[in-house]
Design brief:
The complex is a heterodimer of chains A (about 280) and B (about 325).
Chain A: E1 4-6, H1 19-28, H2 32-44, E2 49-53, H3 58-67, E3 76-81, H4 84-103, H5 116-120, H6 124-136, E4 146-149, H7 151-160, H8 163-177, E5 180-185, H9 188-197, E6 204-208, H10 220-229, E7 233-237, H11 247-255, E8 260-265, H12 270-281
Parallel strand pairs in A: 1-8, 2-3, 3-4, 4-5, 5-6, 6-7, 7-8
Chain B: H1 2-10, E1 20-21, H2 25-34, E2 39-40, H3 43-50, E3 54-57, H4 64-73, E4 77-80, H5 88-101, E5 105-107, H6 115-125, E6 132-140, H7 163-177, E7 181-190, E8 200-207, E9 212-218, E10 228-235, E11 238-243, E12 246-251, E13 263-268, H8 269-272, H9 283-298, H10 307-324
Parallel strand pairs in B: 1-2, 3-4, 4-5, 6-9
Antiparallel strand pairs in B: 6-10, 7-8, 8-9, 10-11, 11-12, 12-13
Classes of the chains: A alpha/beta (about 280), B alpha/beta (about 325).
């Protein structure tokens, strides 16, 4: 994994520090061109990996990348799935079954699988595989060496102790996409322990790591201890703690941690992108 | 919603999940195959066999009254999702019953556990705004953004509609942070996409403390990514605007012994939110269940998050319904 990964929250109005800023960002990034412009700025500054959710609009960004291969040689995307709000809204709107139908590839209920839904709804691994395939469709032709499970699902399964599905995701990503599975979590100590017990060696985990201990469930000390053990390949996210730590201090803290392999950040302006990258690279 | 309660409770080291009950075969099969929990499709059987000390109830609101009554009769502590029941008098009776029996009782109004709203309540108690003369209580979000087939959310008798759902959170927040709602006027329940229930609730709320303010709630607003709740309080010495992410305050004069200056102060929730042991979707969801669990462990009866508080919100909802008819 590259040392610096570029995130996408800012493009879709996800801002943990302010609802107001969320709205401003949604207005700023209304067009696909405005997103591509920022991605290109980050690319010029040396960031060649875009870690993004499977938001509908990402399909347009992928299309742009496919159309301009010369501009994106060695460019990688790390998809993070599922884009939870897409499913949450669909479930409210259509019910669980309706949502599954809407997002499953093709009409699997009548044709592809004999026995249809009754069979499928009992085979959760198969269902997970079909949903992963549906989410991965938009990335065809693009390098996706790491594929992530979003924290809303990772952590839900963690609390439910449905560990088998975490292992199933991990092995399916390897088998089908020849890629590595990654897990996003807000509960590093718990997840790390579970993945070790599942026999997953050096898993890729993306988790909140910041000076303030923001969203570091189980406590900053527990996180630092796990990082020092270097059993996981950790990507630090939310390094600015949702925007209330001074940016320089925030970066200094994260780069000082030996167990952090990569740093994920997002920004909406050329100045912030260049500044953050130069701070990280000065380590 | 029940599934995230289960996950949060499952991750709590002080909790042993002795049974899970649902009516959906798909959910039950999932839990049976993928989790270590014992599953039931009949809650009475679950109660008899699993003998829980406490129950988390997340079912359509119309079932609350009967189920809670039965649980209290069996001496079981209850955490119920909001609203408490569809009838204010029933809610009041359940509150009294739980108190008489000495059982821990809580309603899932998670805004009580969000740092910014807690800080607002604290500041208002310190009278930082001087004489308060007005407030606006708002929530917007994208639940029903087009006409659709009917579910329980679209049936008022089952606890559907924006008033029981989004608006109950906002009404509760007013009861919790300001003062009890004792009257309503100028109420409008508007259907936007739904056929049988309201998608928006507008009106004026009159509080026991004597002040009044505006309620404006709309769950058919697609310009929001998720539910967004905001409370703005106006006083002679300034105003406070609080949502789940920030608290913004403007003071005409700093108060004596206070740490806030004249002019604007912005507090990000991250700086004041208490951390939790397990995070899923928001600290507040874990914090409210932690509170319930520690109340049971320590025998502390909450006065702020209990059925009695829930009954006050159900009373305000009843006032709004009555104003329409």
């Amino acid at each position: 994994m590259d040392r610096i990964l570029f995130g996408d929250n800012q493009f879709f109005g996800v801002n943990h520090a302010s609802d107001e800023k969320s709205r401003e960002q949604l207005i700023k990034f209304k067009s696909n061109d405005s997103i591509i412009k920022i991605l290109d700025l980050a690319k010029i500054a040396g960031v060649n990996t875009f870690m993004c959710t499977t938001h509908d609009r990402i399909a347009n960004i992928c299309e742009h990348i496919r159309k301009h291969p010369a501009d994106y040689t060695s460019y990688k995307i790390y998809p993070c799935m599922p884009y939870a709000h897409k499913y949450a809204n669909a479930v409210t709107e259509l019910g669980i079954m309706g949502a599954l139908k809407a997002y499953m590839p093709g009409n699997i209920f009548s044709t592809a699988l004999k026995g249809g839904m009754a069979y499928l709804s009992d085979d959760h691994e198969k269902m997970m595989e079909l949903l992963v395939d549906a989410e991965m469709k938009m990335f065809h032709g693009i390098e996706t060496p790491v594929i992530f499970l979003q924290n809303v699902v990772t952590d839900l399964l963690l609390g439910l102790k449905a560990y088998g599905l975490l292992a199933a995701f991990h092995s399916y990503i390897k088998k089908k996409y020849n890629a590595e599975a990654g897990f996003i979590t807000m509960n590093l100590p718990l997840l790390s322990n579970v993945l070790v017990n599942l026999g997953i060696k050096h898993p890729i985990i993306c988790t909140s790591i910041n000076k303030e201990g923001f969203r570091m469930s189980g406590g900053k000390c527990a996180y630092e201890k796990i990082l020092a053990e270097k059993k996981n390949r950790v990507i630090a996210m939310q390094i600015f703690g949702g925007g209330f730590i001074s940016p320089k201090e925030a970066v200094d803290y994260v780069v000082s941690l030996e167990g952090v392999e990569s740093i994920l950040f997002g920004a909406s302006s050329a100045g912030n992108i260049q500044q953050t990258i130069s701070w990280i690279n000065k380590e | 919603m029940g599934i995230s309660h289960l996950s949060i409770a499952g991750a709590n080291p002080h909790v042993e999940i002795v049974g899970v009950c649902d009516t959906s075969k798909m959910v039950l099969t999932f839990l049976e195959k993928q989790t270590p929990f014992s599953v039931y499709d009949d809650y009475k059987k679950m109660i008899d066999e699993a003998k829980p000390q406490a129950v988390i109830l997340s079912v359509p609101t119309k079932y609350h009254a009967g189920m809670i009554e039965g649980l209290l009769d069996k001496n079981i502590h209850v955490f119920a999702e909001k609203p408490l029941t569809l009838d204010a008098a029933t809610s009041q009776k359940l509150a009294e019953k739980a108190e008489v029996l000495g059982l821990i009782n809580q309603v899932g109004y998670h805004n009580h556990f969000i740092g910014t709203f807690l800080e607002m309540k604290r500041l208002l108690q310190k009278n930082i705004l001087g004489d308060v003369y007005h407030f606006t209580a708002e929530a917007y979000g994208p639940v029903v953004t087009k006409a659709k087939d009917s579910t329980w959310r679209s049936k008022q008798e089952e606890g559907g509609g924006c008033l029981y759902d989004y608006a109950s959170h906002v009404i509760d927040l007013v009861n919790f942070s300001l003062s009890e709602i004792v009257g309503v006027s100028g109420v409008e329940l508007k259907k936007i996409f739904s056929k049988e229930v309201e998608d928006a609730v507008y009106g004026t709320l009159h509080l026991k403390s004597g002040i009044s303010g505006i309620l404006s709630v709309n769950w058919s607003d697609p310009t929001y990514r998720k539910m967004s709740t905001k409370l703005t309080v106006f006083g002679k010495n300034g105003k406070i605007i609080a949502d789940a992410t920030e608290l913004k305050m403007n003071l005409n004069e700093p108060i004596k012994g206070g740490s806030y200056d004249r002019g604007w102060t912005t507090i990000s929730v991250g700086t004041i939110q208490e951390p939790v042991g397990f995070y899923l979707r928001g600290e507040e969801y874990t914090a409210q269940l932690d509170y319930f669990i520690s109340s049971i462990q320590n025998g502390i009866r909450s006065s702020q998050h209990n059925f009695r508080q829930g009954a006050k919100t159900d009373h305000a909802i009843a006032l709004i319904r009555k104003a329409i008819h």
